[in-house]
Design brief:
The chain has 735 residues and is α+β, with helices and mostly antiparallel strands. It has 23 helices and 17 strands. The model is unreliable at 1-37, 414-420 and 722-735 (pLDDT under 50).
C-alpha cells in the first residue's frame, strides 16, 4: 500500500450495484485507515512497490494466526469453542481492503491459517477444516455485503451505512454459527445448538467490535483532558466492579451509561477502543467466574456463559455504535452548516451591491440582515448603525411614493390587493431613499419559496448618477429639440425669403433682358458699335443672373417638397441632342469639341422633357467650363441590360480632387480646382441635377475619367410597355 492508491471498492451503478472493474483514485494514504503507527507506515512505504502486497498478506496472515492461537488457547475449560474470535474482524478488514488476485491469495491463506490454529489447539483435523471453511465463508459473505452496500468508507458515516454494516455482521454471524454447529454435529464433537449459539455470539461480537477500527472514523471533538480521563476511569471502574470475581448482582446494564457518555462526548475512535477494551475485560472476567453472567449460568456448559457474555458485548455495540454515528452525522451537518453560513456571510457581506434579507411581518417587509453597502445606501452615511436599521420596515426608509411600490410586493397588504401583477413572483423597479440620502436605487426583490414565501432577498444598485445623467440628457435633448425647431423656422424663413426675393428679381431681370433685346434690334434707333457692345454685355449678364435666379428657385422648390412634374414619354436621345444644340455656342466660344453618341432609334423614359434637358444642360455646361481649349466633351447615351438608360457626360478637363469627390452634389459646394482657376459658378448645378434624377426614380454619379477628366452619369429607368422595355436602335455619332 502506498500514499496514493486505487480504491479497491467498485463504483456503484445506477441500480445500486457495483460496476465491475471500476476504481476510484484517492490521495489519502491507505495505511491511515488501518491505523499503523508512523514508523510502521514509513517502513512500509519504503518497500519496493512489487513487494508491498506480499508483505501485507504475510503480515495479515501472521496477525490472524496469532489471534487464532490466542483464542483457541484461551478457550474456557471444557468448551469446544473459543470465548471470542477477534480474527474474524481482522480477516474481513484485510479482505475488504485487498484487491484483484491478492484477495484470492489472502482467502486461501486465511483458510490455511485457520486450519493450522485449530490443529495447534488440539482439535481434530475434520473439526479444524470445518471451522476453517465456516470462518472463510463468514469472511467472504461479510466482505461482499459491505462492498455491495457502498464499501468500507460509507459503513459508519451515516445511519444507512450503519444499517448495512449491522446486516452484514448479522448475516456473517449466522453463517459462522451454522457452519460451526454443522461441523460439531457431523463430527460428533458437540451439540449443534449450543455451539452455534456460542460461536454466532462470539463472532458477531468480534465483527461489531473489531471491524469498525478499519472502517474510518470522524475527527475527534475538542474536549478537556480532564473529561477524557474521567470518562475512561469511570468506564474501567464500572466494568471491573460489575464483572469482578466476587460480584454476582445483575448490574450488567451499568457499563452502558459510561459507554454512552463516551459515544456522546468523545470521538468514534475512542468509542471503538472502549468497546473493544470493555468486551475483552468482560470476556476475561466472566471466563474466570466473575460477574452476573457466570453466576447465573453456574452449572451450565461453558458455551452458555460464552453466549451470554458475547450477547452483552453485542448489545453494547448495538447501543453505542448508532449513537456515535448519529453524533458524527450531527457534527458533519453542523460543520457543513457552518461552512455554508460562512460562505453566505462572505458572499453577502462582500457583495459590491447592497444586499437585504427581508421577512414578511403583518403586511410589511422588515430587515433581517443587510450588508455594509446596503446600510450606506439606505442611510446615506448619517451615522445610523446596523443595529438601528435591523427590524425596521424597509418601506419606512424610502420616499413615500417609493414605499407604496415596495409595500405592493407584500401579499396581503392593502396595496398588493389592487396590483395587476403577482407580487409573489418578485418585483424589479426603481425606488428613492428618504432624506437625507435621497439616493435612487434599482431594486430586484425575490421571494425565497423554500421558506414559505415569508423571506425575500433584495439587491440594491445605486443608480443616482445614472438618473442624474438621464435627467441631464433629457434636458439637453429638450434644448436640442427647441434649437432644431428654431433652426427649422429660420430655415423656412430663409427659404421663403429666397423664394420671394427670387420671384421679385425675376420680373425686373426679364424686363432688362427684354429692353436689351429691343435695343439690340434697333427698336429705339440704331446703335453704334460701342453702344451695341455695351448692350450685349448687359444682356449676357442679365441672362446669367436670370439663370442663377432659376437655380435658386429650383433648389427652393426641392427644399419645400414642391419639386414635381407631370410624367410623359420622353426620348432621351432627342433630349440629348437638344441640350447639345443649346450648348453649341458655348462649346464654340470655349474651343471645345462637343460630341453626342446615341442610338438612332428613340430611347423612352417616363419623365419631364424640360427637367431632363435642364439636367443635361447643367452637366454639359459644367463639362465645358472645366475643359480647356482643344479638349473634348462627349454625351453618350447607352441602354444597359438591367432595363436602364445611362447618359454619360465625359470631359477631358482638369477633373476633381479625389478627396472632394464625395461632396460634389452638396449645395453651394465648389471644388478647390474651380476656385483656383476662378471658374464662375454657384455650386447649385449638380444639386439640381441630383434632385431631377431622384425625382425621375434615377440617380447621378461621378467617376474620374481614365487619362484625366471626369465622367458624370445620369441613370434613368426605361419606360415599360406591357412589361417589355422600349427597344433601342444602334448607336450613331454626330459632332
Amino acid at each position: 500500500m502506498t500514499g496514493r492508491h486505487r480504491d479497491p471498492l467498485p463504483r456503484r451503478s445506477a441500480d445500486g450495484h457495483p460496476r465491475a472493474g471500476a476504481t476510484r483514485t484517492h490521495t489519502e494514504p491507505a495505511p491511515s485507515r488501518v491505523g499503523p503507527d508512523g514508523a510502521l507506515r514509513a517502513w512500509f512505504e519504503q518497500l519496493p512497490r512489487s513487494t508491498r502486497p506480499v508483505v501485507a498478506i504475510v503480515g495479515v496472515l501472521l496477525t490472524v494466526l496469532a489471534l487464532t492461537l490466542t483464542s483457541v488457547v484461551l478457550a474456557p475449560p471444557g468448551s469446544s469453542v473459543a470465548a471470542w474470535w477477534p480474527a474474524a474482524g481482522v480477516s474481513v478488514a484485510a479482505l475488504l481492503w485487498m484487491r484483484g488476485r491478492n484477495r484470492w491469495v489472502l482467502g486461501a491463506g486465511l483458510f490455511a491459517v485457520s486450519v493450522l490454529g485449530n490443529l495447534v489447539g488440539d482439535r481434530p483435523l475434520a473439526v479444524s477444516v470445518g471451522f476453517a471453511l465456516a470462518n472463510l465463508a463468514e469472511t467472504v459473505v461479510v466482505t461482499l455485503l459491505l462492498l455491495r452496500s457502498g464499501g468500507a468508507r460509507s459503513a459508519l458515516s451515516s445511519m444507512a451505512g450503519l444499517g448495512a454494516f449491522l446486516r452484514a455482521c448479522g448475516v456473517g454471524a449466522v453463517v459462522i454459527a451454522v457452519g460451526a454447529g454443522a461441523t460439531v454435529q457431523l463430527t460428533g464433537t458437540g451439540d449443534f445448538v449450543a455451539v452455534a449459539r456460542a460461536v454466532g455470539a462470539s463472532h458477531g461480537a468480534a465483527l461489531l467490535l473489531v471491524l469498525p477500527w478499519f472502517l474510518g472514523a470522524s475527527a475527534p471533538p475538542q474536549r478537556r483532558p480532564s473529561e477524557r480521563v474521567a470518562q475512561w476511569l469511570t468506564l474501567l471502574v464500572v466494568v471491573a466492579a460489575v464483572f469482578g470475581p466476587r460480584q454476582s448482582l445483575p448490574l450488567s446494564f451499568v457499563p452502558f451509561v459510561a459507554l454512552m457518555w463516551g459515544a456522546v462526548r468523545m470521538g468514534q475512535r475512542t468509542v471503538y477502543a472502549q468497546l473493544v477494551l470493555s468486551g475483552v475485560i468482560v470476556t476475561l472476567l466472566s471466563a474466570i467466574g466473575g460477574g452476573p453472567f457466570a453466576h447465573v449460568s453456574a452449572g451450565y456448559p461453558p458455551e452458555v456463559v460464552i453466549a451470554l457474555v458475547q450477547t452483552f458485548v453485542v448489545c453494547s455495540a448495538l447501543l453505542v455504535l448508532p449513537l456515535s454515528v448519529a453524533i458524527r452525522q450531527r457534527q458533519e451537518a453542523m460543520t457543513e452548516l457552518q461552512r455554508s453560513e460562512a460562505l453566505f456571510r462572505h458572499g453577502f457581506n462582500g457583495a459590491r451591491v447592497g444586499m437585504l434579507l427581508l421577512q414578511r411581518d403583518h403586511g410589511a417587509l422588515r430587515i433581517v440582515e443587510l450588508n455594509g453597502v446596503a446600510l450606506r445606501l439606505l442611510t446615506g452615511g448619517d451615522g445610523r448603525t446596523e443595529r438601528d436599521v435591523l427590524g425596521q420596515s424597509w418601506s419606512g426608509l424610502l420616499d413615500p411614493l417609493s414605499a407604496l411600490d415596495v409595500d405592493g410586493v407584500v401579499p396581503g397588504s392593502p396595496v398588493s390587493a389592487v396590483r395587476e401583477d403577482d407580487p409573489a413572483q418578485g418585483w424589479q423597479g426603481e425606488v428613492q431613499v428618504a432624506r437625507p440620502s435621497r439616493a435612487w436605487l434599482e431594486v430586484t426583490l425575490s421571494p425565497l419559496e423554500e421558506y414559505g414565501g415569508d423571506l425575500y432577498t433584495a439587491q440594491l444598485v445605486d443608480i443616482t448618477e445614472r438618473r442624474e445623467a438621464e435627467a441631464q440628457l433629457r434636458s439637453a435633448l429638450e434644448k436640442e429639440r427647441r434649437a432644431v425647431e428654431r433652426l427649422t423656422e429660420l430655415d423656412q424663413a430663409k427659404d421663403d425669403f429666397v423664394s420671394n426675393i427670387s420671384h421679385e428679381l425675376r420680373t425686373p431681370i426679364t424686363s432688362v433682358i427684354g429692353y436689351a433685346e429691343m435695343l439690340t434690334e434697333g427698336d429705339a434707333g440704331d446703335l453704334n458699335r460701342l453702344q451695341r457692345g455695351m448692350v450685349e454685355k448687359v444682356e449676357r449678364n442679365a441672362e446669367r443672373l436670370l439663370a442663377l435666379i432659376e437655380d435658386v428657385l429650383a433648389v427652393s422648390r426641392v427644399d419645400a417638397g414642391s419639386f414635381s412634374f407631370t410624367a410623359s414619354e420622353v426620348d432621351v436621345v432627342h433630349c440629348a441632342w437638344q441640350a447639345a444644340e443649346a450648348l453649341e455656342k458655348m462649346s464654340s466660344d470655349a474651343e471645345v469639341t462637343l460630341t453626342v453618341v446615341a442610338p438612332h432609334d428613340p430611347v423612352l423614359v417616363a419623365g419631364d422633357f424640360a427637367q431632363l434637358e435642364r439636367a443635361l444642360l447643367n452637366l454639359g455646361s459644367n463639362a465645358l467650363k472645366f475643359t480647356p481649349a482643344g479638349g473634348r466633351v462627349t454625351v453618350r447615351v447607352t441602354v444597359a441590360a438591367d432595363d436602364v438608360v445611362r447618359i454619360a457626360v465625359e470631359d477631358s478637363g482638369m477633373g476633381v480632387p479625389e478627396a472632394e469627390a464625395h461632396r460634389l452634389f452638396e449645395r453651394f459646394f465648389r471644388s478647390s480646382t474651380a476656385q483656383a482657376e476662378a471658374i464662375q459658378g454657384t455650386g447649385l448645378g449638380l444639386t439640381i441635377v441630383s434632385s431631377i434624377a431622384h425625382a425621375h426614380h434615377g440617380d447621378v454619379g461621378y467617376a474620374p475619367r481614365s487619362g484625366g477628366g471626369s465622367v458624370f452619369t445620369l441613370t434613368l429607368p426605361l419606360l415599360q410597355t406591357h412589361g417589355v422595355p422600349v427597344p433601342a436602335g444602334g448607336d450613331g455619332a454626330t459632332s
